[in-house]
Amino acid sequence: MTYTLKPATATFLGLPAARQARPGSAAIFGAVHGTAYPNAVQTISGISAPDAVRRAITEASVHVDHWDFDFDGPLLNDGGLEVVDLGDIETKPQDNAGNRAAIEAATRDIRAAGAVPILIGGDDSAAIPFMRGLADAGDLHILQIDAHIDWRDRIGEETLGYSSTMRRASELPFVRSMTQVGIRAVGSARREEVEAAKAWGSRLVTVRQVRASGVSEIADAIPRDGALLIHIDVDALDPSICPGINALSPGGLWLEEVTDLIAAAMTGRRLAGFSIVEFQPANDVNSMTATVVGRLICHVLGNLARQTGC
Asked: Which helix or strand (DSSP H or E) is residue 107 part of?
């Protein structure tokens, strides 16, 4: 093992802590830093982003075995899915290469155990080694839900940072398609990045287009051969419900739109992994963003618990 896992102070939804994933389970782990932002702050009052999510969703969902009206039954379908919390990979803002190696290795180990890795970030660059760790899944189709396309080749001299996530994904030999949903307003992309994304074959779907066509049409166009990765940058959601982010951009997706898209995308597809990033605890209000992040993870788990034969 080339990384260290630190147990969570309290697990996600109070579910079992574990030192390693088990076959058929979903395994949650946190990683605060990938290629860290300069002067990055990912804690508030000593609580990391993953632990803030764990605490908020557990307080909001005290009884995980009670009826979940979003699923018309208990979240985990009366034992239909085992979920374990592995804690957090120890990362350091001064050790970008080490952080990336640790995230990739942990993801590979979870996959090798026959489990689905669930990553709670941390900065968006943590998704780059996470995606690399999914190589064993075979042909991979990515659903990115984000306000930005993240197709910069580099920012300054950095090629593995937060604005390059999908550019680096496009270079992985096993990535076959990319659907990018929730795009809006202005980010780091210039004309050349938009043209590069389109030339590669990425499907860019703005918020307006989501509402014009509906999430079912968007999900239906994702290929069904191979496996699915769902990657969410929390700034995809409107900042009125997700204020705890780095880049405020009004006019984002609503929670129900994202959860409906998750459900539609997972229907009839095999989930290789799920990552959710860019939650900034220092900017959160009343744990609102932390709770939304936790609830999005719950929707992935709830749909996994109801899948058969994928």
From this structure: helix 96-112
- Class of residue 122 by CB neighbours under 10 A (exposed 0-12, middle 13-18, buried 19+): buried
Inter-residue contact 140 to 227 (CB < 8 Å): yes
For residue 270, give every residue at least 6 positions away whose Cβ sits within 8 Å of its Cβ, in sequence order, or none: 137, 226, 227, 228, 310
Report the run of H or E that residue 85 belongs to, with start and end: strand 83-89
> Is the peptide bond prior to 24 cis by the omega test (within 30 degrees of 0)?
no
Predicted local distance difference test score (pLDDT) of residue 259: 98
- Structural domains in the chain plus CATH codes: 5-304 (3.40.800.10)
pLDDT of amino acid 247:
86
**Whether the model pTM is above 0.85:** yes
Nearest CA-CA partner of 48 in 102, 10, 13: 10
Q: Which residues of the chain have pLDDT under 50?
A: 40-44
